[in-house]
Amino acid sequence: MKRIVFTALAALFAAAACKNQEEEVKLQYYVTPHPYETIDVQMPPVTNEVKNVIIMIGDGMGMEQVSCAWVLNHGKLNFDLFPSVGISRTWCTNRLITDSGAGGTALSSGIKTAYSHIGTAPDSTDIPSVLVKAQQLGKKTGVAVTCHFADATPCDFCCHNEYRYNQEDLIADYLECGTDYLAGGGLDWFTTKRTDGRDIAGEMAAAGYRVALTEDELMQAGLPVIGILSPDNLPVAGERGDLFRHMVTKGLRELSAQSGDKGFVMMIEGSCIDDWLHGNRIDLAMEELLDFDRTIGDVLEWAASDGHTLVVVTADHATGSLTLQDGDLEEGRIGIHFASEGHNGIAVPVYAWGPGSDQFTGIRENDEWGRLISSFVQ
């Protein structure tokens, strides 16, 4: 009898604890004010020759974030057009949970490295990115991001440092990166935030770059060009309109026109998805991701007309330990819960479209995906 009573009491306590936990979980609800139609394009044959490679990175974007965006846009995304999907494990050499320095470097170079390293191996020696390989082959290269240029991911492709927060040194590295098209934010990091008094924007102009400080100036500039279009990150998605999309399409047009038969490699990052996941702001994070998806649509339309462009979309890591716990597909409404403000170690998706895309399936390490991407740059 005592055992029966004890078991019954234990069950009651467990039920009460579960109820209390459910009551304590406060869900954030969101409905986007800007649902949109996705594109409709025909993918060229996977057997076509690959001339151009476009790498798109949604910073902090795991499958859970993409799932939320899918609901918000009433069950359709441009992500849905990708015929090949794989899984990327993101750990770095000295930590299970990576950062954008190590995570982005694995994608850019095909080499796993240590936490906070930018374009350097675990022993701090410089390692070349896929953009450097492309330049050595005579291809044009480009980068377009929504963050400031001192942030980790653009630096992973253009710079070298053992510590991602040595930002003055990283910005100075752009002088020698050789990238033909650069578009993002962070003018303060080139000028007023510097403690050494240098004007890196002016030095880049002296080195032959056209320096564009407004969208109009960028749209009118030829290569090589650096568009530094805000003091820090670009304005949030709800305020910047189609600025990021215009930056990307301008880059595609210029790199394609100037590359001839050799082709180009371009890295495009939806950088600020991660920033707002760190802040547990589902509204701002989702608007960044939806803008990234619209940009993916622009890229796929361009690539479909070209016929020789491989497009790969992935993430450097996932952020926020986000769970989708409620919502309505017809209403485009989500109810979510954040379990952290940091990164997590859950594997992230890899999407591929175009010639060569059939090879982008399976479960691989992030550096393996980086080497596979680089293998198409030839």
Low-confidence stretches: 1-9, 18-23
Strand order of the largest sheet: 6-7-5-4-8-2-9-14-3-15
| Helix count, DSSP H or I runs of 4 or more residues | 14
The structure class reads: alpha/beta
CATH superfamily: Alkaline Phosphatase, subunit A
CATH architecture: 3-Layer(aba) Sandwich
Largest beta-sheet details: 10 strands, mixed
Tell me the distance between the termini.
77 Å
Mean pLDDT: 95
**What is the element string, with H for helices and E for strands?**
HEEHEHHEHHEHHEHEHHEHHEEEEEEEH
Word description of this protein:
Helices cover 38% and strands 21% of the residues. It is α/β, with parallel strands linked by helices. It has one domain (29-375): Alkaline Phosphatase, subunit A (3-Layer(aba) Sandwich). Helix 3 (100-109) packs parallel to helix 5 (152-158), helix 11 (243-259) packs parallel to helix 13 (282-306) and helix 12 (272-278) runs antiparallel to helix 13 (282-306). The radius of gyration is 22 Å and the shape is globular.
Helix/strand layout:
Elements: H1 2-24, E1 28-31, E2 52-58, H2 63-72, E3 84-89, H3 100-109, H4 130-136, E4 140-148, H5 152-158, H6 167-173, E5 181-185, H7 187-190, H8 200-206, E6 210-212, H9 215-220, E7 225-228, H10 237-240, H11 243-259, E8 264-270, H12 272-278, H13 282-306, E9 309-314, E10 318-319, E11 322-328, E12 333-338, E13 343-344, E14 348-353, E15 362-365, H14 366-375
Parallel strand pairs: 2-8, 2-9, 3-15, 4-5, 4-8, 5-7, 6-7
Antiparallel strand pairs: 1-12, 3-14, 9-14, 10-13, 11-12
Helix pairs in contact: 3-5, 3-14, 11-13, 12-13
